[in-house]
Description:
By secondary structure, the chain is largely without helices or strands. The protein is about 15% helix and about 10% strand. The two termini are about 20 Å apart. Residues about 130-140 have low confidence and may be disordered.
Amino acid sequence: MEKIIKLAPSYKDYLWGGTKLREDYGKSSTCEKVAESWEISCHPDGPSFIAEGEQEGMPLEDYIAEHREAILGEQGSGKMVFCRIMSLDDCVKGTYGILEPKKDCQVVRADENSLILIPGCAFTRDGLRMGYALNGLYHL
Length: 140
């Protein structure tokens, strides 16, 4: 899968909502006040949808289910696996040329002394990562 999938976000109009997402970031919503914009979400309370093409309107979760291996790779089990990487020689180019651990990498258990590098998908204008949640799910 080498194409870009454009998504339509879900917007939340909670009590603390305002107009900054619309005014500063160009978000278009039917909500009068927008508190949150869930850009990439499979959450039942605010899923993202495919924005264009043959699958337009399809919930992201359904799209992932149909194209699981192409999107998540062969190990797309839904469980995070930690691998020991000592150098870039321990990696191969995966989807979109992004380096990922080789299939025969050593799997390790993470503990409080582990360093875990997680790539970011979206950032604020100040360079802060957007979308992390306490439960480890990402709402971008």
